[in-house]
Amino acid sequence: MLLLRIGDKCPEYGGLSEAKEHIDVCYGVLSREWDYSKDEILTFLIQCAEEMPHKIPFYGVLVGLINLEDENLAGKVVDGTQRNLQDALNSGDCNRIRVLMRFVSVLMCSKVILAGSIVEVFETLLSSAATTVDEEAGNPAWQSRADFYITCILSCLPWCGAELTEQVPDEIDRVMAAIQSYLSIRKRTPDIGLQVFESDEDKIINEKDFLEDLWDRVQDLLNNGWKADSVPRPYLQFESQLVVGQSHDFAPVSCPDQPSSLSSLSSVSFGREKHVADLKYPRRLRRLNIFPANKVESIQPIDRFILEEYLLDVLFFFSGCRKECATYMAGLPVPFRYEYLMAETIFSQFIVVTISFFCFMCAASVATSCSIQTLYYTLVIIDLCKALPGAFPSVVAGAVRALFDRIADLDMECRSRLICWFSHHLWAPQRIFVQEVLEKEVRLSYWDKIKQSIDNASSLEQLLPPRGGPCFKFSTEDGKEITERHTLSSELSSMVKGRKTALHGSKDALEVVVQTLLDIGSKSFTHLTTVLERYGQVISGLCSDEEKQVWLINEVSSFWKNSTQMTALTIDRMMAYRLVSNVAIVAWVFSPVNVEQFHLSDRAWEILRNAVNKTYNRISDLRKEISSIEKSVISADESALAAKNELDVAESKLEVVNGEPVQAEKPGRLKRLKAYAEKAREQSVSARESLEAKEALLARALEENKVLFYSLYKNFASVLGERLQQVCVNGKLPSSEPVEVDEMGVDSEEPSKMQLDSENGKPENRASNSYNVGEQEQWCRSTLGYVKAFSREYATEIWPHVEKLSAEVFEDAHPIFKRVVYAGLGMPS
């Protein structure tokens, strides 16, 4: 517990607050435990350094003190750290590489590791990076790995730059020169596909990228004598003791071999390889500059970077314990305030970052993971508001206001994530955004509760979705006229409730059958599942082709027109039971009625996203099953071979009886061995047949996936082509100019606490920005935003089909549509 709590104000240290006192107390306890659990303590110490990196300076000093008493013990820490770093390099574990390099740097400052050894590690990474981006000898598609290695080196320098300059000045100058040389030969690759605000594209293209920006920050730090307020240096208080310790060599590490060169391959192949590299070595932070410069805390550029590292480390390593996460984020070891920077960093993680560093996931788990992470960030923000009640709530409010002011310019995927988060924190303006937030609020609670919560906000009541419930066409309530169809529906309902399956009727009765079955299943999700399981064959028989499946989806949408959630759930269940295909869902989404609503509602997009996720879920599940069966086949083949060999050996044993050769084995044992061999052979055959069946299903699923994306992008190109021609000026969409308007009113007598200005505690008189955008232009912007979002989110599944899509869909498509798709895929246009 002392190792975990070192540096914290906690009961375990008796209220002591000085770092030196903490280290002395912790070291005293550890030294008394050496004889009983030396190996366990060393393992736990390294684990603490890896999983609580904001406390690495304290752990470095502890190892330095251990080194004074027992050099062999400290040597084991160094060797263990080297092995872990090599394992992390081999596996491409970005977080572990970065944290362990920081730990190694701090160990050098505590006189545990030789300075020259650190330089060797830096030069190894530099050599690999330079070779990777070399167009002749390397593979520039993997520049993201090279950039990551350079980022790791630069991020270590605030911790060890001063000591390296003092101990090995020539070597560190050589490293800095090599980094500058690398920056001169690498290609700047602006992430247009990941821009948060659409109007920032030119700015992103022209400004420095993340690595160039970090290099400038380190240069400023160097010019400032390596003085960074955010880097604690507890080893200075023990310098007179640590200096007499014996420093250890840090064994060399090696970088993985670079993938083979792609110089002779097409741009599509290059882009596909680059996408794989970007997934494996993602950029850790994409800054979301929400606040104006006069609001954000005035700190050194390098201190901002280090503080962001602290915050991201805590968010990552404490993702399973949000209260501890909030506590550590509120009490980081820095001498300045950082509420605005903390808010920007948190918002950047759940709004901007597409490939989260929490886990590298396939598209099958994207929706679930996003919802879980949104909940996690929501709870962290709530806990931070409790931990910093005088400062953080107003900062969060300011961040939300700033994002609202630019909501029309916000990337569609970022907007959807903001809606999911904000549905826990209902607030105010911008019509479409608030409409989607209220719809998700109803899902999280219930309609009456949400209606009651906005009674004083008359301008919001009109945006509240209708009370959820089915819209049954053949209901006999409310004194409606009873027609022949109403009678048929009533009879059909009685048959279903009596568990009779002999449903039949003319083509005109199709609507009655579907509406009645939906009405019976409308009572609960369980009722819906039961109806689909029991009468799925009936529905499948009635809607056997794509045209009728589109009609079926339309009937579901009509039945649940007051509940987007139930519409999505019903269609999702129907797809699971293969009552509707993914291509039929795409056709329905792009039907004229839905197309006209693309910029007004998220309903069709949610259903489309569910269909794509479920399609890839099948592929993912089949791949896992095939992998498991392949192992079973190998095991079964080995068992069959072993049984056969044992039988052959037994049958080959002969003995001479009365001058004649006869079987030496007993007949009973031979019989058992034959039975075992036959059973093993049958199991092997069965496993192979199962494997063949699954491989056939996988081939079918992959073909469905290909058809799905072909249909999706063909429809996108079709609906966008005509409208883009109408609104484009000189091949570009007109820029949307913000216009100041009065903020959407909330009829409340008192200002919300979240609306108070952080500086004086008084409400701010302010106006919000609206946008002077025509409806057709807004439709194009929204739809293009979804094109980019889908391309970015499902890039891994789309890349295998890019060549076919490029040749048959993108070739004749509108240039703006093509550029947006390529930006989403991260492919040069």
Automatic annotation (TrEMBL):
Annotated region described as Disordered, given as residue ranges: 738-770
Broad class of the protein's primary localization: nucleus
Subcellular location: Nucleus
One GO cellular component term: nucleus
Coiled coil stretches, renumbered: 640-697
Ranges annotated as biased composition (Acidic residues): 739-749
Name assigned to this protein: MIF4G domain-containing protein
Species the sequence originates in: Spirodela intermedia (Intermediate duckweed)
